What we know:
Number of domains: 2
Radius of gyration: 17 Å
Number of helices: 7
Distance between the termini: 46 Å
Order of helices and strands: HHHHHHH
Shape: globular
Strand content: under 5%
Amino acid sequence: MDVADMVSKERQARGITQGNSRLTEKEVLEIRSSCLTYNELATLYNVCWQNISAIINRRAWKHLKQPGYQRRLTEVDVRMIRKAFTKGSTLGELAGKYQVTPENINLIIKRKTWKHV
């Protein structure tokens, strides 16, 4: 009962207010917008690659919204993303251009999302 009340009223410790946090909100946003590999980011920020994965896939730091990443893609965008990737564009380049995360670009390319296009 007490835990549910705490969560519903958003009184739980999150992010930097949670005592074990090694990263700041700014660092988390940098990680999410980076085109480096999980291992490179883990080394750079002195955390394990599993933490990087959780941050990028929003299993950790869920409360933190990524500015500029609320845009919805169109079917034309998805086709252009796939075409640009086959011509050599990187996940990071495409993510920046279309204002989505590199993980979203990867899912589009692997046809795990937007399967119908």
